[in-house]
Amino acid sequence: MATILLVDDDESVREMLKTALSRFRHSVIDASSAKEALARFKPGVIDVVVTDILMPDEDGLTVIRKLRDGESDVKIVAISGGGKAGPDNYLNLARALGADRVIPKPFSINELIGIVEELTG
After folding, report:
1. Which residue of 34, 53, 69, 101 shows the fewest CB atoms closer than 10 Å?
2. Averaged pLDDT, 92-121
3. Would strands 101-104 and 48-52 be described as parallel, antiparallel, or unpaired?
């Protein structure tokens, strides 16, 4: 079981992912913005951060950069549909900033669960 910080501005996506991760016995702390995520992040408590990239105000790239600047070794999974430009550019940037894994939207719950279990196994 991992403790996951789930960051997505879309409430329906956040709730669906939170429910799915909880069914696999993971503890989930959710946040609707980068600012809220950074306030809720606790080093040594959070095992994995799953963050959307495109969000209003500060984006998921900010979350990744600030966690890595703080020298956190937390595992980070970046997710993105990429808007009109598609996800590749954003996800490549997320990887360059320190995301451990990237997943383009749409993705299957099993894919996310597999990645979380791989990163925490």
Report:
1. 69
2. 96
3. unpaired
Give ∠ CA 78-75-57 in degrees, rounded to 5. Answer: 40
- Residue position matching structure tokens 């900033």: 97
CA distance linking residue 1 with residue 24, whole number of Å: 8
Model's pTM, two decimal places?
A: 0.95
pLDDT digits (tens, 9 = 90+) for 49-59: 999 999 988 99
Name residue 24's amino acid: F
Q: Which residues sit opposite 50 in a β-bridge?
A: 6, 77
Helix (H, G, I), strand (E, B) or coil at 48: strand
Domain boundaries, the chain: 3-120
- For 16-55, b where at least 16 C-beta lie within 10 A, e where not — what string? ebbebbeeeebebbbbbbbeebbeebeeeebbbbbbbbbb
Q: Residue 59 is encoded by which pair of tokens?
A: 């984006």
